[in-house]
Amino acid sequence: MLNDKVFLTQTDTTIGFVSQNADKLTKIKQRPPHKHYIQAVNSLHTLNTFTRVPQKYKNRVRRAKKTTFIMSNGHSYRVIQDTHHLLLLDRLKWAYTTSANLSNEAYEESFAREMADVIIEPIKETKQASQIYKLGKYALKRIR
User: Which residues, other chains included, contact 38 with Cβ-Cβ below 8 Å and sequence gap of 6+?
Assistant: First the structure.
């Protein structure tokens, strides 16, 4: 039931769309279908169902705040620490997350509210994007 909805909510970094349906997000954002979304997960345990985290990075991934990690499978994951965002993720376990705007456009509240199936208040705008690291077998590389 919840896994087909698009939520508009305050994420840990910005106002965003959250959903388990990547196709719906792609249609809303009008973005190329081959681009991957960041998967937000509620715990390292949930993350381990999708990919293997190298042993030497497990503590970093578990404790990182507002940080996205690109894993060896080419997909991006973020373990959420923010309590407001976790209220939704604890119910879903994981979800794709993206900013609430058209691809390469600025945030527009009326567009975001119109496209969402469920709006979770309160929503306050923040501009801080997550840090992004690529986890390699032997090295950690900062992307953003």
Answer: 68, 76, 77, 78, 96, 97, 98, 130
* Cβ neighbours around 68 below 10 Å, total: 22
**Which residues form the domain of 108?**
2-142
Which runs of E-coded beta strand occur in 48-135?
67-70, 76-79, 94-99, 118-119, 131-135
User: Phi and psi of 4, rounded to 5°?
Assistant: -105, 0
Spatial separation of the C-alpha atoms in residues 46 and 67, rounded to whole Å: 16
- The residue with tokens 């923040």 is 126
Q: Tell me the CATH number at 38.
A: 3.90.870.10
Tens digit of each residue's pLDDT (9 = 90 or more) over 91-128: 999 999 998 888 888 888 889 899 999 988 888 876 67
Structural domain total, the chain: 1
This prediction's pTM: 0.89
